[in-house]
Amino acid sequence: MKDQLQELEHLLHDWEAGVLDNEGLGRLREILRTDEAARGHFARLQTFNVALMSEAGSGESISLPLPSGAASDRSAPTTAAPPSVDAAGGERSARVVAFVVGALAASLLVAAFLSAPPFGDDVVESNEGNASSVAIVRKASDVEPSSRGVAIVTQLVGVNSQVDGRELSAGQSLVPGEFRIEQGLVQIEFFCGATILLEGPAELQLVSTELARLRQGKLRAQVPPAAHGFTVEADDLRVVDLGTEFGVSVSTEGADVEVFDGEVEVHHGGSAIRLLGQGDAVMHDRRGELADAIARPNRFVDMASFHQQLSARQVDQLEAWKRWTESFRKDERLIAYYDFNDPERWNRRLPCRTEPANRELDGAIVGAVPAVGRWDGKNSLEFKRPGDRVRVSIPGEFRSLSFSAWVRIDSLDRWYNSLFLTDEYDEGEPHWQILDTGQLYFSVCKRGVKSPLGNQRKVLSPVFWEPSLSGKWLHLATTYDVDRRLTRHYLNGELLHEQEIPADQVATVTRFGPSTIGNWTRPNRPDLDFAIRNLNGSIDELAIFSEPLSAEEIQEIYVHGKP
Amino acid sequence: MTAANQTEQFVQQLTEHQARLYGYVYSLLGNHAQASDVVQETNLVLWRKIGEYDPEKPFGPWAFAIARLQVLSSIRDRGRERVLIDSELAEQLCGVLEKEMNRLDDYRTPLRMCLARLDEENRALIHHRYFHDRSIADIAAAVGRSGGAVKVALSRARQKLFRCVSEQLMMNES
Q: With a cut of 0.95, is the ipTM above it?
């Protein structure tokens, strides 16, 4: 009996794959005819299939070549108006019909989707040209979503170093291994709870969440009770914290340890453990001898003056950015520009900062609350909950477009994580978002495309985001060039991906209308639960242009805005 | 109730039933292009019969009955074209299908939960195929496997997903 159900599954699968012969079809029908349980099973299988398709089809990721053109034009189907509608209701009904047909179109997504060869091998050859966007599909088993991190960089000033080929910035998580800075100061928080302030030039080996080896340079450690046992090794010394604040310095002369507060244990080879209290200092010279030394706490930068430096620098950067935006906001190509710099938590109006001002473009903040932006003293808007969003309405028609935003992604929780989405997805309407795979995703809707190559107006970047970037400010930009039929994605001022779009898939007239920042709003969908696309993170500056910005211009925005 | 109100309510009902009607019709015809034609025809017939619409009565049975007739006439008209289910069998199946399709919404949450529970590899396959609309060939190229192997893997992944969803549904029932 159970075998028969399995056989049914296989037969049905073959049918879907288009490889079921007549004999198989006869067998499938025979099972269904003679077995009531099989009929129930069939109904469940098919319902599951439809649920899967419609779940998948709830995104606009599916192109919409409407069969026979019946529903392609929302105003046309008034010919199907019902026989008995009074004159007053006439126009209203027409709109209602238009809506039904729109909804029908949505339901047909499923159909459109599979009317392309569903399991066709015949498309293999035709996809070579598309390889760039395909090759980035990551093999699931390659990447485990765990972190090997032991510590995180929380603040830095005057540091000019790279980690993994990227400029070191706040929020960078650090994995076991060597960490080097040439200059400046960096605050590192270990996952055990200890905080160190490392002064360059310095070389530190991160070993675990509670152990680091200082090879060269100076550090000051602050260890709250929860992190007792945090250990710094320097030369032959092991400095085990007992709840304290202490400094370690390693130079060509040897290693120094100095206690500012509390106690530490100093282990040195086979000798007895030395207990150092507040104001004590020891020196371990190159001959391997350990001796008392005079404490010179001023050699170590303390947290307070570090933070003074830091905030002075932040203020400088913020002021420089503000000056730069004075001309930026007057750029005539700007369609809308939000700098998110309004410190009032309960002001729910997000002003559009283009000049001359146009209050019509102001956004309405829903749910989202202000959070610290790229700099202290500069706000961003944090999107956390499924309802969080900013509503805007942008009138007009355009051709090419550019999007630019500073974004802090905490995690990619949704299949689609919204940056900027129009409410509908009609001809010429852009959707700018990030997939849970960590790929930037941009498309402008184009109706009625029936290309044998499939949908190529959706432009996916390679994977750019991974959990180690969580909490870091990133600059994302996408340009849509109608004339050159080219979409480009940028990350932190660098070109990430570019893709040509076939001529018949380019929407040359673009428009927005009611749109949402940081989420998706679909007012006309009965199944509202589909539309959760909230970003989990913050946005601090969003600009939309009516031209494709050049690589240099994107770079300029990045350089002037980077924290 | 005014005519306009009634129309609006009708439209709402019709909209709400689209996915179910589509699933019902597709289940019997086994062909997406045909199914979308038949659903459109069904919608038109329903629209023309709006005068018979009674807001007091459940919309579903009425709509399904009309869809059934449309499916049967479609099967008849197809003649030699292959369809999944013949007319006789369609009559046998329509009751149980209608019942199951009415639970379509119940499938959604378990489906999402089960998708989340699939191991990464299977989940990625389903995602790439159904959510990101990638062809088997694309996926095969990306993961460095043959189209045939991906097809088999995808079929297994879907089977796994179906088992999980079925279990969840049964748990919900009990």
A: no
